[in-house]
Amino acid sequence: MAPPTNQELNEKREKNCVTVTVERKYYKVGNTWIKRSLRPSEWQKQNGFMHVPLFNTERILNEGECLEFLAKHTDIPLPRLIACFEDDSAAYLITEYVDGVGMNELDADGQAAVAAELQRHMQTLKGLTSDTWGGPSGVVLPPHRIIGKLNGRPLRMLPREKSDLVFCHNDLSMNNVIVDEKTFKIKAIIDWEYAGFFSPEFERPFYQRAGPSIALRDELDDTGALMDIISEQSEYTPMSMRTLIK
Q1: Is the pTM value of this prediction over 0.70?
Q2: Which has the closest alpha carbon to 46: 81, 83, 20, 27?
Q3: Domain residue ranges in the chain
């Protein structure tokens, strides 16, 4: 059987399913928001090729662990975690639904007000330090902008001699900041799939402009520099890392 297209899956959405992307299904049931990874039978054909989500279940499970960790150790506004688990080849993240608008939907003055609050929360994250790379469970999921360079291989990073790794969101675009459109107060920072303890260079303030968490147009592309850090700090030999980067 041919793999489904995204249009086909969206046309066949079940009750309460809001949308299907090439990697996720999203549901809203009352005041509850559900995100789950796609099962292999739901992987889709895109531009003539099968799109295989990298670290499909691991990313959602990591997000649940990060939400739990941050709720215990910070006052950063987050969706309230209800449950996070794996079942039948899919990972589920269940949170309280956060009503609001994306930072990207505000005018320039509103975005400036939100950015000022975001900077305070970023300082809070930088205050969380560790000598161990990755999320609270130890899984290392680097940012989307470089994860594709790993060819699906998990990272095994060497521990640091001191606790100089800081907690990074790693996907902090305007779309991932939910705000009150009247007060401009942040209601929740969402999508912590790639979060964890990394060297400070991994966190980029993508929320300072509209668009995804990758370098655009004339912006500095830091993917090579980040891969160099991984090469130096991972258990892979330099030769094996060069093979991964190609």
Answers
A1: yes
A2: 20
A3: 101-245
